[in-house]
Structures
1.
Amino acid sequence: MHIVVDCKSFMKSLGRVHRVVERRNTIPVLSNVLIDADVGKMQLQATDLDLEITEFVSANVEKTGATTVPAYLLYDIVRKLPGSTGVTLTVNPERNFVSIISGCSHFRLQCLPKTDFPKFNAGEFNSSFQVGKKDLKWLIDCTQFAISTEETRYYLNGIYLHVLEDNGGLKLRAVATDGHRLAKVDLDAPCGSKGISGVIIPRKTVSELQKVVGEGNDEPVLIELSDTRIRFSISSLILTSKLIDGTFPEYHKVIPSTNKRKLIVNRAAFAASVNRISTVSGNRGRAVKLSITTDQLILTANNPDSGTAEDHLAVEYSGDAMEIGFNFRYLLDIASHLSGEDMMFMLADSCSPALIRDVKMKNALYVLMPMRI
């Protein structure tokens, strides 16, 4: 194998691909990235056996071939090379070393054969549809923070993506919950998505996908589904992942429909107020109390080890006076993922979950469980 590739293009692609590799592996080849050179291009591939990423890079391939190289070591080398020069990759005749040459720099790394690299059997994809990159990013950004990290409830360790009829229209819906909060967002269902089964996309896959769709311009993303896998194709990059084999809970049962007390507050002012008074909360309590009266909201935090804090905000509210407590981090998370000027709380009482959304945008909502105060 003998390749010459542009350093900046190589580094950009390696930067995406190497992230999938786990730093600690009992199987040596899983620490490596597969480099497979063909006419005019090379393929970079990495996997952790649950998630596989493949990217194609234009290259001057003087001799085709394939090998695997330690992913993090290769990335560290390439990112430190002068970006204005090309990178030459050559495998020795015995195929146990790869030479990396750029300008006056010369590296020689041990490699493992392509035959050792595991094949990620994706099976046959039986349905597919396309979503715009910006729309997919919005779906992920608005729900990703609510994914559970509790491994015992593995079926909550991802985003539940499904298609359903809602208010007379077909919607592509993403839902995530950790049992304390729930995030739900909708898009108009794209062509070809009707009838697909609901799937749970794992947290690591969501994290990698979020980074990829945040790069570059808007473009279509092809999403393909099988019984156990999901594949995202974005330009020269392909991300294939196992799905979580579990049943997502009936989330609609925890979304309140009878909350009658409406509180409207400026989103930026509310977030700033919560951020200020949470300074005294510390990591142990994290509770912020909302005392709501006609047109006024008083936020308080109390920490026996440090002190108290209080802040006042003007709001729109005409119901009975009430008090309710929330985890301040959850309030800040939700406020940061809303985009409107004003946010709306629909409340029942101090012990019941609150419904939170933008005043004007109806296709994203959040449910937050209260804390004892």
2.
Amino acid sequence: MSIFPERLESWFRKAVPDVRFCSLRYVGERSESLCVRRGVVEPIASGEDAGVMITLADGDGLGYAGTCDLSAEGLQRAMSRARDWAARTAGHMAFSVAPPREPCRGDYRTPVAVPWDSVPLRDKIDLLRAQSDRLHTDPRIVDWDASLWHSETEILYLTADGTRVHQTLNQMVPGLGCTANDGPETVSRSFGGRGFCRQGGLEVLDQTGFRDAAPVLAQETLELLAAPNCPTGTMDLLLAPDQLILQIHESIGHPLELDRILGDERNYAGTSFVTPDMFGRYRYGSELLNVTFDPTDPGQFASYGYDDEGLPARREHIIKDGVLMRGLGGHLSQQRTGVDGVANSRATSWNRPPIDRMANLNLEPGESTFDDMVGSIERGVLMQTNCSWSIDDSRNKFQFGCERGTVIRDGELREVVKKPNYRGLSATFWRSLTHVGNPATREVLGTPFCGKGEPNQVIRVGHAAPACVFTGVQVFGGES
């Protein structure tokens, strides 16, 4: 992939027509996925993909064209198609597209301590075989797997007026899963809901505790098999980070995307209960709620130096002391709404235009220890690891299920329960936040599979969060 940026830049500078705006975004990705399931090595999945997207504004028209033909001729054909589409859309645009910001130049590279290719394939397979064996500790465990997924993505963004941004991102996703059965009962546990996604190399395995997790997951799976169902009622809820990330993602991240608020996503991904007039004054949560957008954290899954329209990444408060401050919208959405946004115009690959997407969206730690939070609860449940979710089209009414629960009674952790669930409304749920865990309770996680857009774009998102306590939550078990 490394030979393309230099050639593409030369070809692009020669091919740019005399138009109001023109950009090239090259994306090349190499990936490999390894899995050992039930002690058997599954076929290795590997792939390479590379291409270019041209964006061109001419007069009041806008055109896109993508191509995987990376020759000078292929680039020229894509440029011509984009210009033709700009001519076709002139006079028919729903809104005007102002030129982007001042040109910028920069480079960004994921810090990597142990490169993926520095460890032989055989050694990586042997590691997964060993973890798979450690999961199968009992005949009642009927399915188990250990996996590693790695990708390296190179991005070059150029504009006719001088922007040049070059980035190389390395992502790692380790996974463990364990399912047990006894008669009519089947339960599962996974490694953080397969949410321990990070940027980096194989050092991520040690950062996340991957090498030591399998025996614990196997034991917890068998424990769940014999556990009673979660109790039902209104009570306090202590959410572990691997569940809280889903709560952040669905009931803060998606409703604050500005293109969704504008109605652009209504047909597919949905709309939002949030309206533009709420920014700067709406109480989204209690005073303990502080949420930041931070692509600058190099260890998180969706870190970068610049978004896919060349806007420099910065850490920004989205919610501060419970008050909604700014939206998750890039350059175009900020123009259309007049609402402050962030550098989050992102595309899944070279063959999609960038749209408003989450990157690293984090709930900032507070001051409570884990013992403090448990001790504050007279009647409640600790819930860990998301396994199911449902939320309405406006990202308001939700219902989430977890893999594992632990009853809290009189300030102490008691019996383990299975199939714990809870429900609520985004517009009120975060106001019931009473304790935010300190940095010792914080975990860095994410998801590789956030879908949105027409045609669909699946993108990688990072979340970091501490454990948190919410009061007066509707909790219910698997038989409700």
3.
Amino acid sequence: MISDTHVHTSFSKDSTAAPPAQVERCLALGMKEVCITDHHDYQANAGENDFVLDFSDYLPYMERLRQRYAGRIRVNVGVELGLQLRVRPELEALANSLKVDYLIGSSHFVDGKDPYFPEFFEGKSEKEAYGRYFQVTLERIRAMDCFDAFGHLDYIVRYGPNTNRHNTYQAYREWIGPILETLIEKGKALECNTAGFRYGLGQPNPSEDILRHYRSLGGELITVGSDAHEPGHVAYGFDRLPGLLKSCGFRYYTVYHSRIPEFIPL
């Protein structure tokens, strides 16, 4: 079983899953390791920082969890950082200070709004909304280095009016092309996030044509995560991944230990 490198617990505001329950699910599925990656995301709305982790609580707890399961499954500790240029100094300093295995960088809030909510799309065509999301994402990836892999690149299509019906690499290549090139230049991984299957997209995030283009550019660092917020979603859709990723030209996926990438055969 492919190891899940994007799993949330009750340390994230949007999850009620007890950390041991997530690890137990991974054990039941036969994984050799898992990475817990709870949210640390300064919201753009004034004073609302509901997704900010208390690292003085989070890190010691995760170390105890790691020790509890030692010899049964490797529990890696990570964080999903919400990238925003306005807090770039804080995030860069945090990334340099954290003793963790893996940092995911993600775009959630754009212009003070999260595409999870319909208001993000108000007053914009779908093309404009998606384009703005990818434009801001490109700016963040170019400017910031506080992450190991970029998570769910086309996150926005989970919630758009037509979801991913019109989302292709070609439709947004002016931003997605440079995003992929920048990740490769910086030695950052691209995440294959299987929550897209769970949202009924028929594709992971990002879509298969984006994954294929990333590989054609020479991208080799590909991480795999379910974005699970409850035990039943751990490793969702992983049975499809070996064939899908191999068809895109990948032969290995990547896990991080102490923020150093290691390749594992698919």
